[in-house]
Amino acid sequence: MNIQAITEGVYYVGVNDRTTYRFEAMWPLPSGVTYNSYIVKGADKTALIDGVEISEACKLKKNIREIIGREAPDYLIINHMEPDHSGSISILRSFFPDMTIVGNAKTLEMVKGFYGIEDNLLKVADNDSLDLGGLTLSFHLTPMVHWPETMMTYVKEKSTLFPGDAFGCFGALNGAVIDSEMDIEPYFPEMYRYYSNIVGKYGTFVQKALAKLKDLNLSYICPTHGPVWHKYIDRTVDIYDRLSRYEAENGVVIVYGSMYGNTEEMAEIIARRLAECGIKSIKMHNASKSHLSYILSDVFRYRGLIIGAPTYSNTLFPPIEAFMQAIKTRELKNRVIATFGSCTWAPQSVKRITSVLEEAKIDTKDIKSVDMKQAVSADTEKSLVQMAEKFADELLK
């Protein structure tokens, strides 16, 4: 059990989930995931910060008992109502019937809507505080990071922030809880994947939250998923800051679909020429094989995006259509983009890719494209090489 003191009066009581196959029934969890819960114990009162997924409620109770014995938490602070955290509320209330549930107005509406609970609630507003005796919780509303009710809780005396899902990542904890006590590098790719899949659409609201919190002194950030951040706070905040501004590293993601290898050959020609032009970070994803979550992670990380697909039933190859809708949903910005496509008799794929880009409010007037019929010819190869050269120039300038 990963139960430990984070700093005096603040304890980790969360749980690992190494069983669930897909987060939100969509995103693969090869290394599992955590549902992080915390105890803040003042001289007079004790608060439980966030719950866990419903199937883990009994583990959470056991962890709470490890810290506070037979006492009951006085408060349950809810920073985020998504059921992977709030699913245990009804069970926790049955364990601790006198525990007051604390949340903002939108949170308490959801507590009633999801779980039918209307009694022993405490409504808080932005910048309200709650004295536990020597430790004070202050509440900071951060709507749409990434639900409308989300807020963050701060303990000034310990410079500790509980940000809900913000600054979280996939991956279970392998013994240690605090970043300085573990090999942290495997968690950063999972942070990119978590952000791009779960939070990606809400960059504007993440920026507002970061601005709101900029004057807080931070020694610990305790998110609801992944490690507790201490040594790597600056790196963690920087990743969220850059991703929420759609700022990316110089590199290229080639996302393609191919039924019989002809479109894939086009992708390989483009990649080879990009490498010859000095592009070192090139990520290639066959959309029929790579899971969408990994594709989106790379798309958020790198500034260049090249999309290719065959025509399928007079429209776009379905795995690429799904990808296009995903980047449209996430309101992707600030990318260098090119497209390519193939067909046997009806060239529709590039037209459809361009159409979705326009629906996503991405300017397509300068986007380079290559379309071919049947197989790669000498002329097609020349066009692909020229497109790759122009793309590299734009990316590197």
How would you characterize this protein structure?
With about 400 residues, the chain is of the alpha/beta class. About 35% of the residues lie in helices and about 25% in strands. It has 12 helices and 22 strands. The strands form 5 sheets. The protein has a 7-stranded mixed sheet. A hairpin with a 4-residue loop joins strand 7 (about 40) and strand 8 (about 45-50). Helix 5 packs across helix 9, helix 6 (about 205-215) packs across helix 7 (about 235-245) and helix 10 runs parallel beside helix 11 (about 350-360). It is elongated, with a radius of gyration of 24 Å.
Strand tally: 22
Average pLDDT, rounded to a whole number, is: 95
**SS-derived structural category:** alpha/beta
Return residue spans where pLDDT drops below 50 for at least 5 consecutive residues: none
Across the major sheet, the strand order is: 1-2-7-8-9-10-11
Radius of gyration, taken over Cα atoms and rounded to an integer in Å: 24 Å
Oligomer state equals: single chain
User: What best-fitting shape do the alpha-carbon axes yield?
Assistant: elongated
Count of DSSP-assigned helices: 12
- Calculate the terminal CA-CA distance, rounded to whole Å: 51 Å
Helix content: 25-40%
